[in-house]
Amino acid sequence: MAAGHAQTPERPDKQAMSKEQDTHPTPTPEAQAAGHAGTEASAPAVDAPTQIAELEIRLAAMSDSYLRAKAEAENVRRRAEEETSKARKFAIESFAESLLPVRDSLEAALALPNATNAQLLEGVQATLRQLTQSLDRNRVLPIEPPAGTRFDPHQHQAISVVPADQDANTVVTVLQKGYLIADRVLRPALVTVAAPK
Description:
Layout: H1 14-23, H2 29-39, H3 48-90, H4 93-110, H5 117-137, E1 140-143, E2 156-162, E3 171-176, E4 178-181, E5 184-187, E6 189-194
Parallel strand pairs: 2-6
Antiparallel strand pairs: 1-4, 3-6, 4-5
Helix pairs in contact: 4-5
């Protein structure tokens, strides 16, 4: 080398620098967090026997709650069955009770062998009123369509088709009343129906 030239420091080789960086990698954020966590006081870990004991206590409480709920459901089911059975057995009780005065009136009429026709007629009319009131209270209502009503096969039963001066397929006369009970047909009305013209 010439004496007058200062020696320039050599620049480190790029490959050498990259190798040095590979030997000292930059820590990831997770690793940094783990390192900091290690320096902090860690929470005391619950030992396995304690966890098992706590779980057993919780299991016992849940089992007890389940058994209580099951017993309560069984009691409710049993009570419902008893009430249904009583309802079926005594469903007619109020209806039968409302008919007792009708029977009393009939027995009272038979106890008067020397009653006049007027007395008998008055007694029969009073008994019929009692019976009608009993049926009304128990929602047993008559089906008695007026003449000219459209024939309804759900509530009427046609006995015959007759010529009449009215629209075809309408009620001419009611031969026997029908009855509804709670909106269900107990007995259809027997009727005659107008024939087609």
